[in-house]
Design goal:
Blueprint (H helix, E strand, L loop, with lengths): L1 E6 L4 E6 L2 E4 L2 E2 L6 H19 L6 E8 L5 H11 L7 E6 L9 E8 L1
Parallel strand pairs: 5-6
Antiparallel strand pairs: 1-2, 2-3, 3-7, 4-7, 5-7
Helix pairs in contact: 1-2
């Protein structure tokens, strides 16, 4: 069975299948700097994980896209305070052109439910 959350004509914010939650990329508000955008994105991830019956201790994989790798340390300062230290996921971070020039970070996670 596939269950979709917060869906519209284009996409779902989360999809759960066979006990795995696939979250759409989460971003911050465009007026925020990378630190605040990271905080906002992680807050959205927490909310989505709760909605599907999971939490950050069950994250399997995280993919983080930065508009500029110069923001790597600033983003990590927020990530390191947020991530479950006892259950860190596998993770990849790269630089990419994001959907809007104001976006500094986008975070995508896959988690067990």
């Amino acid at each position: 069975m596939i269950k979709r959350y917060q869906s519209n004509h284009r996409m779902s914010q989360a999809v759960v299948h066979n006990g795995v939650a696939y979250l759409a990329g989460q971003v911050g508000e465009t007026h925020e700097d990378v630190v605040e955008q990271t905080r906002t994105a992680l807050k959205e991830i927490d909310a989505l994980l709760a909605e599907v019956g999971s939490d950050k201790s069950k994250i399997l994989m995280a993919t983080i896209w930065l508009a500029d790798m110069a923001d790597f340390e600033a983003m990590n300062s927020v990530w390191d305070a947020w991530v479950d230290q006892a259950n860190p996921p596998s993770r990849a971070t790269g630089e990419a052109k994001l959907a809007a020039p104001e976006y500094r970070v986008e975070i995508i996670v896959t988690a067990a439910v």
